[in-house]
Amino acid sequence: MKKKLLKISLVGRTNAGKSTLINKLVGEQISIINKKINTTEDLIHGILNINNIQLVFFDTPGFKLDKEYDKKKPILKRNLWEGINISDLILFLIDSKNFKLNENIEHLKKLLEFKKKIIVVFNKNDLIDKKSILPMIKELDKFKKISNFFSISAKLNKGINYLITNLLNNSYQSEWLYLENEISNKNDIFITNECTRNALLTVLHKEIPYNLKINNMEFKYLKNGDLKIKQEIEIENPRYKKIILGKNGDKIKDIRIKSQMCISKILKCKTHLYLKIINAKKN
Ligand SMILES: Nc1nc2c(ncn2[C@@H]2O[C@H](COP(=O)(O)OP(=O)(O)OP(=O)(O)O)[C@@H](O)[C@H]2O)c(=O)[nH]1
Ligand SMILES: [Mg+2]
Predict the structure, then answer these.
(1) Is residue 181 domain-resident?
(2) Which domain holds residue 218?
């Protein structure tokens, strides 16, 4: 059978559930999820192969970036546009519970400029009365440019199979981008660093976690199969150290335990995580 391919960008407001969906599609946690905004920073590829067809999903940083954040991290916007540019089809994900017509129209207009097929996916349908989706579809269908609408719950894994079937039908004859056994463009070190970033997002408040960098210093499987990881948390402002440590070191302990649990779950092995806070390296 000839090989087929489809490259799909997952686009939508921050918190719409893009990373939750890519993890469900791929069947593994390759992208971190958090209820804080702008969780995803990098462009993460997730791969799903079904028979002769390869679907490659790009998880993008959310639309509607916080202005301050936008200034500090222009890379997010770049990753978002790159994800759309290299895709064949755009999946525009909407949080059905927080449907904002004007904002969605504004985003859709921007997306239409790329002249790619667009599918609209209403996510989080577990939080709403399903009937309320119809009027939302009617509004967006006025564009006459949306090729399909779906209603899903990424979190509860509902409605995703219909979406996959539709995507498979859109695939075209081509060599695959990834090998049969690959599920992401990111390696284990990336995802373990992301676990710590996610723990920092959860435990710390406001802008601090967005200004930190995680460096992997050691990643080693021990003889007994356990994993030993050493990471540095790089701070750009020395006063962050006290905040991250917390009273009697309870914050950093919480961060370490949360990250360690996340790593153990994803890599399916007992993990020993060591964290060190360092000042940003001057170039
Ligand atoms: N109830 C419900 N919650 C969901 C669903 N999908 C995602 N969530 C929650 O929504 C929050 C945001 O999910 P993410 O997957 O991190 O959202 P995102 O679009 O990747 O966000 P950014 O990376 O910030 O752009 C998390 O708390 C998820 O658990 C869903 O179908 N139902
Ligand atoms: Mg995300």
Answers:
(1) no
(2) 188-279
Is residue 261, in this structure, part of any structural domain at all? yes
Same domain? For 197 and 163 the reply is: no
Q: Which atom of ligand 1 is nearest to the CA of 34?
A: 16
CA-93 nearest atom, ligand 1: 19
Relative to the CA of 123, which ligand 1 atom is closest? 31
Domain annotation covers residue 178: no
Taking only the tens place, the pLDDT of each residue in 72-129 is: 677 788 888 889 999 999 999 999 999 999 999 989 998 999 999 999 999 999 999 9
Q: Is the CB of 96 under 6 A from ligand 1?
A: no
**pTM to 2 decimal places:** 0.91
Domain termination residue (choose one: 173, 205, 240): 173
Ligand minimally distant from the alpha carbon of residue 76: 1
Examine the domain organization and report whether 18 and 61 are in the same domain. Answer: yes
Verify whether ligand 1 is closer than 6 Å to residue 124 (CB atom).
Answer: yes
**DSSP assignment of 169-232:** HH-EE---SS-TT--BSS-HHHHHHHHHHHHHHHHS-TTGGGG-EEEEEEEEE-TTS-EEEEEE
